[in-house]
Description:
With 127 residues, this protein is mainly alpha-helical.
Amino acid sequence: MVFDWEKIKQYAYIQCTQIEITYLLDCDIDTINAACKRENGVEFSDFYKINAEGGKASLRRQMFKTAMSGSVPMMIWLSKNYMNMKENWVLPESIAPIVMAYTPNVKVIPIDEQIDDSNIITIESEP
């Protein structure tokens, strides 16, 4: 099997996984690994890492260009992911928390006013 190593570099560059590349080439990982060792002098995993990193660097470069051109969402994303910034949702001490309570609408009858149950009629069912 003949491999187009430039095409494989491009697959790695756009972040295709090694499994995806073997699927696109219709071969198994052992076949591409043996060919890579034979034709490039390195394991396929190393060949892949080198070329995938180039794609990551290119993507990162575009992200920075986008942020520097004024994209606020990209600036926020980069600041959170590269500068470890985060949004703190802590209320200032001057703002009191809102406390909500539920009070059921139940009338409490004092014991001395309780219903006299001697006047209650009960109906018994027939046997």
